[in-house]
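Note to self: keep these together.
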Amino acid sequence: MSLVGRLEDLALSDIFQILSIGKKTGMLVINGAAGTAMIVFRNGLVVRAETTALNGTLGHDLLNSGVIKESALQMALEVKKKLPAKSVAEILFDLGAVNKDTLEKASKKRIEKAVYHLLLWHEGDFQFELDDLELKDSLHIEDMGWEVSKGISPEYLLMEGARVYDESAQQEFVSNEELTGETAEEGGWESDWGGHGAAERKDISALKSLTQELRFPNSASEITLLILRFASDIFQRGVLFIAGEKEITGLGQFGLEIERADEKIRETALPLKDSPFLTKIINEANSYKGQIEKDKITEMMIKEFGGGWPSEVGIFPVIAEGRVAAMLYCDNAPTGEPIAETEGLEIFISQAGLAFEKALLQRRLNEMQRTMENKNPPLTPL
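Structure:
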């Protein structure tokens, strides 16, 4: 399978989802104004990523973190001149300068950094080929890095990359305040009363940072990722389901400590007729926080998620076009911590429902336009 196009037409999140769901193996190459990037997939998981937007090689990352000495890196660079097909990391491993476990950890961090940079690219060409050898010769990347033995979920990389982007934006905002000498407290009620403002709640802070992104989403899959990102700031784990008339089907997750978590969730389909508890929540279309009632489906669901029975859960319906289109389940089962305030999340989910409606409407308009064009092809001059 070949996948070719432009980032303006197909966002990185959509590309990742296509390759992840299809369990594809091959190389994705992206060329943009900011440089070139390559991402290697194995069975739908990311095992290697490099981009010219990153400084140096994985070997330089190891040097900067104090894992190897300068002499070891220079020796590896000299060997690479004679063996250009080998990466610096592979040479360092062969020389005994670094062990495999350290290379795995360093490579995962570099993959995350590469994907973060790619999230900033909104223009450029992309090409995916099943046989990555076809694309390797055309790359202008200094070094191919190290391939991790256990692949990384594309959904996780997108969420982490977006989280880094949000943190960077917040740091830039704080830096601007320091440069101008202006802060939110100056001139506000805090200075008038001689006090200090209370620390902002997690859900409200996340609401401020993500609502702007939700205004102009590139696709329905991007809305899905935004919901999961928001929830992951408040809860330790969660699953987003598509809600049908008779069943709910897994769409995405965060925090589940089970093997092949993303794949297992997408394979999960739970019939609503066997769960009075979930059916009631969906029919009433209201958020729920409290103990989860045991029935055939909820017991099956919690068993699938792993861990013990949660002391309390949060369940949030996503309403689009007057019906529950999706359902977000969250809990803090890994540690048993109490659920924090969720008003910000509930507001965001209501906005996400409106964004879903816009995405559906846009899709229908595009389909209508294509239909009209097929029925009325442009006239050609005689």
